[in-house]
Amino acid sequence: MRTQAQRMLQGGALAAMFAAAFAASAPCGAATQAPAFATIFSDHAVLQRDQPIVVWGKAPADTVVTVTLNGKSEQAKADGGGRWRAQLPAMAAGGPHVLSVSANGATTALNDIMLGDVFLCGGQSNMELAMAYATNAPIDIPFGGSPNLRFVNIARETSAARRDEFSTAPQWQVTGPQTTGQASAVCFHMARALQRQYNVPVGFVNASWGGSSIQSWISGPSLRKLAAYGQGLDVLDTYARDAAAGGRAEEARQEAWWDKLDPKAAAQRAWSKAEFNDAGWPSLEPGGRWGESGIDALKNHRGVVWFRTTVELTAQQAQAASHLLLGQVATSDTAWVNGVRVGAGNAWWAGREYAVPKGVLKPGKNVIALRVLDDDNSGGLLGPADQRALRTADGTRITLPQRWKYQIGSRVSAVQQSAPWEPPGSLTTLYNGMIAPLQGYKFKLAAWYQGEANAGDAREYQTLLPMLFADWRQTLGQPGLPFMVAQLTSFGSVATKPGKSAWAELRQAQSLAVRNDAHAGMAVTFDFGDRSDIHPGQKTIVGERLARAARAVAYGEKITPGGPEAVSATRSGGDIVIRFANTNGGLRTYSSDLAIGFEVCEQAACRYAPAAAEGDTVRLKGAATAGASKVRYAWADAPFINLFSADDLPANGFELDVQ
């Protein structure tokens, strides 16, 4: 028979046992705050094989943490702000593994972690375009996934200041019928081709934003190397510290630009004020381009048109309303509410949404004024009336009146600057929010598909693209990080005679940037473009051509990275002979004995020239006139071409001096 002491002892042991069981079943860190990984690390992530693995996160200040992966452990100490960073040794491809971080008996564990190759994909809408909208989606989405092919989409995040962490936690996903539709189509097809080629796990990080300019993706310190961006970056820095002060600085910058552009700008600025009497202005119901409004005075107007309307608000509405929504505006606009400037934009495809500072809206009558600039007669408030509204913090919309007053302003031709913090034309803000937080994550390569937004200034792009290469390599700590570039595809007007082409100039800038970088490759794409759709759905070919370039540049295979590239143009009697590299067995022409799209130029005057493919060369018969100075090929926004390599890759467009 047990004594009272034995019963008490056994009871204490049982209590201790139950307490231990409860502690084991409780969430990690219930009693002690568990250390955490940075948000780029999640279940299903892929970490770069064969390179030291850097991981980081947060923990209580001065805490020593232990990071473990695949049987390897390293310790690190959190600094005074709670940030820790550890480096694990390089590891071979494989998995799945558990990645954990522990401190003071509390652990955070991530499951199903793979070691393999990781790709960083960036750019604008043709990189952003999801598998759900790509050609062959009904086949590729249900059947194209694999446990060894994974991806993560970085949420659109713009930031005036550089961030160490994403504000929206990314979530790695395994490709499959329920997930593949969300993946970047170009990046998916590139990654799938390389995963199958090398039979290792592959993960890709997609950081892209439709319509964005390359300036948005380059860090401030790098952009400051170009004097033209200094003032805008100064304004951005001010805005990062104090949004109101930044807004005032930007207003001063913009209005100084207007004063230089338009002698009447100062006088017309009174039209933005709430007290201005617009009783004599005519009115219209906007909802399209002013050239199509049926109003004679607007049919052929190029320049500025002002719009004004009033909206009555209750005291509660005036207190709650926080944003002005205008829908699409072509092309540039500046907006004032009760005489206070609230924003400006210049991307016609992006709906306008401007924050209205507290206290600007009043009970009763409120005046909204817009200055709209377009350098042809296609400007205006494009969207339907219900897109123009004030929005409250809870999402309630207060629709603006359908009818607006208008007044024709000055005839000017220019492109208005956007605020340096306003995407998609911002300076450095997408780098700050979507690239900088990746610092430390290692990649096998980066893929870049962007340029449409910069097609108006190819000369500058030739400087900016190498700058982006260098900037991302520095951020990621990978000086030799390979870059694969998807060339601008075919879109827009077809050519019936030689002429200027902004898209051909941009393609040339891309080609030169890649040619001058030992760690870069290119996918030529204009043979699979769509002249009526800036977002052609055939992304399989683009992705697979990027993969081919990667096999040569990033993986070191002894293959050409792509198709034929012109390397020289020389006189040969009365002809000009253009020599090509990477013909992969010789040049050939489709549907003709002649190659179409070749031009010979005497300074700025160009003409089409008959061209015949001969092995690795193209001969322009009779083209070597005394004044012949350069030759061009596929020099159009949407060129028709028929010159290919023996293995069915298109010859790249070019402009070359004749030697």
Q: Roughly what fraction of the amino acids lie in strands?
A: 25-35%
Report the major sheet. 11 strands, mixed
Mean pLDDT score = 93
Which structural class matches the secondary elements? alpha+beta
Defining key terms:
659 residues; six-stranded antiparallel sheet; 14 helices; disordered N terminus; 23% helix; 36 strands; eleven-stranded mixed sheet; alpha+beta; 29% strand
Summary, kept brief:
With 659 residues, the protein is an alpha+beta fold.
What does this structure look like?
The chain is an alpha+beta fold. Helices cover 23% and strands 29% of the residues. The strands form eight sheets. Strands 2, 4, 5, 7, 8, 9, 10, 11, 24, 25 and 26 form an eleven-stranded mixed β-sheet that branches. It has a six-stranded antiparallel β-sheet with strand order 12-23-13-19-16-17. Helix 12 (458-476) runs parallel beside helix 13 (502-515). It is flat and about 75 Å long. The N and C termini lie far apart (111 Å). Residues 1-30 have low confidence and may be disordered.
Layout: helices, strands, pairs:
Elements: H1 4-25, E1 36-37, E2 46-48, E3 53-58, E4 64-69, E5 72-77, E6 83-88, E7 94-103, E8 106-123, H2 125-128, H3 137-143, E9 149-153, E10 173-174, H4 185-198, E11 202-208, H5 220-223, H6 230-241, H7 243-261, H8 265-268, E12 283-284, H9 296-299, E13 303-313, H10 315-320, E14 321-327, E15 329-330, E16 332-337, E17 340-345, E18 352-355, E19 364-374, E20 380-381, E21 389-392, E22 397-399, E23 404-408, H11 429-435, E24 445-449, H12 458-476, E25 483-486, H13 502-515, E26 520-523, H14 539-553, E27 565-572, E28 575-581, E29 587-589, E30 598-602, E31 605-608, E32 611-614, E33 617-620, E34 630-633, E35 643-645, E36 654-657
Parallel strand pairs: 2-8, 8-11, 8-24, 9-11, 24-25, 25-26
Antiparallel strand pairs: 1-3, 3-6, 4-5, 4-7, 7-8, 9-10, 12-23, 13-19, 13-23, 14-18, 14-21, 15-20, 16-17, 16-19, 21-22, 27-28, 28-33, 29-35, 30-31, 30-34, 32-33, 34-36
Helix pairs in contact: 4-14, 6-7, 12-13
